[in-house]
Amino acid sequence: MREHAECCEELRVHPEILERVKPDMPDEECLYDLAELFKVFGDTTRIRILYVLFESEMCVCDIAELLSMSQSAISHQLRVLKQARLVRNRREGKTIYYFLADEHVRTIIGQGMEHIQE
Amino acid sequence: MREHAECCEELRVHPEILERVKPDMPDEECLYDLAELFKVFGDTTRIRILYVLFESEMCVCDIAELLSMSQSAISHQLRVLKQARLVRNRREGKTIYYFLADEHVRTIIGQGMEHIQE
DNA sequence: ATAACGTATGAACAGATGAGCATATGTTGA
DNA sequence: TCAACATATGCTCATCTGTTCATACGTTAT
C-alpha cells in the first residue's frame, strides 16, 4: 500500500489527505483568537478565580483572601480575564464586584473537568 | 448597606461570602490539572494541529506540510498533545498516524469558538 | 548489514508571562 | 479639601515556553 507520492517529491506526504483538509481550515485569525482564549484558562490563579466566581460575585479583596494571594496579583489577573470577556464588573461605592460574563465559562471548564477525570 | 465586617478586621472582606464559598473549592491538584489542560489548548500551533485532526488522522509530515512548519516543531507539539491525552497515535510501518483521542476536544474547542464569535 | 526514511528528542536561545513592588486612580466620609 | 480605602497599573525580574538545530531511534527494503 501507499504507492503514491513517490515521483520527485520533496516531502513524503499524503496528497489526498492534504487536498481534502486544506480547504476546511478556519482562517488564521480565528485560530489565533481561540488559542488566546484558552491561554487565559491556562493559569492556576485565573482558573481559581473563575471557580470562586462560579459561586458568587465577589470583590477583589475577597478573592485575594480566598486564594491567599496579594491584591495586586489578583487585580492583574482580573484584568486579563476581563479583556478576554470572561468576567465583568460593577462598582458599588469603593468596592468593585466581579462576576462571570457568560455561561461559556462554565461549559468550557466543565468539559475540561470531565476530560481530566475520565 | 454593607454594615458588616467593620470591627477589628485587617482586611475589609465580606465574611459571609468567604464562608459560603470556601468549602466548595475543588482541591488544588484538580485545579492545577485543569489549568495544565487548558494551557495545552492555549497555543496556536497546537490548536491548528487539533483542527486538522478534526478532519482526518494524519502523519507528522502531513501536518508539518499543512501548517508550513518543521517536522521537529510539529513533533514536539504532538508530544505535548499526547501527554495531555488529547491525541493518540498508531504506527503503520515507518509512518505514525495521529488522531484525536476523544470527543472532549471537539466540545471544548467548539465552546471556545462560540465564545469568541458571540 | 546497511542505507533511506519517518519520527523523536536533547540542548540552546529568544520571546512571553506571572508576581512583587511602588505608586497612581477613583470613591467616600469627615 | 483631605485622609482612608479599594482597586489598578507600570516596571522589573525570574521563570516558563516554543522553535531551531543537530542527532538519535525505530522500521523497511535492498
Structure characterization notes:
Two copies of one chain form a homodimer. In chain A, helix 4 (60-67) crosses helix 5. The first copy, chain A, has a three-stranded antiparallel sheet with strand order 1-3-2. The first copy, chain A, has 118 residues and is mainly α. The longest helix of chain A has 14 residues, at 28-41. The relative contact order of chain A is 0.11. Chain A is elongated and about 60 Å long. Chain A has helices spanning 15-21, 28-41, 44-55, 60-67, 71-83, 104-117; strands at 58-59, 87-92, 95-100. Chains A and B meet through helix 1, helix 2, helix 3, strand 1 and helix 4 of A and helix 1, helix 2, helix 3, strand 1 and helix 4 of B. The structure holds a DNA duplex (30 and 30 nucleotides).
Helix/strand layout:
The structure is a homodimer of 118-residue chains.
Chain A: H1 15-21, H2 28-41, H3 44-55, E1 58-59, H4 60-67, H5 71-83, E2 87-92, E3 95-100, H6 104-117
Antiparallel strand pairs in A: 1-3, 2-3
Helix pairs in contact in A: 4-5
Chain A binds a DNA duplex (30 and 30 nucleotides) through residues 12, 39, 43, 45, 59-61, 69-80, 91, 93-96.
